[in-house]
Amino acid sequence: MTVNQKIYGRLKVKLFSAKLLLSLVFITSNSFAARDVLFEGYHKVLSGKQHVGYTISRYEFDSTTKKFYATIFVKLGALAGNMMESIRAESDQNLSPISYEYTTLVTENNKPSTKNIQATFKLTKLSKKEQDAIKKKLKKDEKPPTELLKMTAMVNENGKKTKIIDDLPKGTFLSYFLVYLMLKSKTGIQTDSKYEYQAIAEEKPKLVDGVAIVRTEEDYMGIKSYKIENQFNNQKFISYVTDKGHVIGVVNPSQSVETQLVAKPAEATGDFNVPATVLKTLFGDVPLGVENIVSAKLHQEAMKPVTEPAGSKQYGAPPGTGIQTKVPTQTIEQIEKPLPPPKKDK
Q1: Domain-embedded: residue 115
Q2: Would strands 173-174 and 160-169 be described as parallel, antiparallel, or unpaired?
Q3: What is the pLDDT of residues 199-221, one digit of tens each?
Q4: Residues 6+ away with beta carbon under 8 Å from 297
Q5: Claim: this prediction has a pTM higher than 0.70
Q6: Considering only CA atoms, which of 245, 316, 330, 276 is closest in space to residue 56?
Q7: Residue 157 belongs to some domain of the structure
Q8: Domain containing residue 93
């Protein structure tokens, strides 16, 4: 489950229930050094083709500790419910969850509503007595598990505190890591493949069944992507994902909502507030959003050598034409055409 898919499942304004962090008091500082960035990018959120907010995502892997990290920030404006949301999640190299923190802030009629969840996970071995007790609840041909993943979550919603303890099956993961789990599977991401899974819906916190089906491989925003239909938490989405796990966009056809990965942060943030202090606390810095295929493509276009006269209709594009967002393939070809010889004066 990606942050873009989350956007649709929870928004009251026909978007997703994006909410966000303000309770920085709950956010602890981590060392951000020595992590390899797998993906970092800004997505703009559109509702009925109207720009209503943005998301910032960063996925990392620490080769020393062998851990995956996901850091997410969402900001939605007044047309999408005045919401902010953040999450910081940590999983081991097999994507088994270690911990996460989820914080939301919703402002409605000038009244703020907050929610903070801090959850930890521990894999525990079951005794013979515990296995026998579970076996009684299973079918005859089913074997009881030897290990369970114990979740302990502290929920603080508008000052009301609740402690949740739950035993989860081994193999449970955090929904924000779905794409990477698919990449690490035996088949990887390929067409005509189906992935049935159980993942934590971080905003609940609760274990939810899901299914992702890879339909076709096609161009989306000019980039070769896998079209993935995902159903999770009673919501249906269509995601466009590259073979490297870069989520180019997510579409919710029933609500006319879409998120699109952009090359420059300003394209996503627009006129919406960008809380630098919050971002530095959450990410360790203000993300540049350049570690993704869309940003790399823009950089390649800018560095492409061109010899034809600028603005020549015969040899190039007319004046004012910018970089095209839709191209047949990801390949960026260098176009080098010789200039015509100058005419000699008679």
Answers
A1: yes
A2: unpaired
A3: 999 999 999 999 999 999 999 99
A4: 222, 223, 263, 330, 332
A5: yes
A6: 276
A7: yes
A8: 3-296
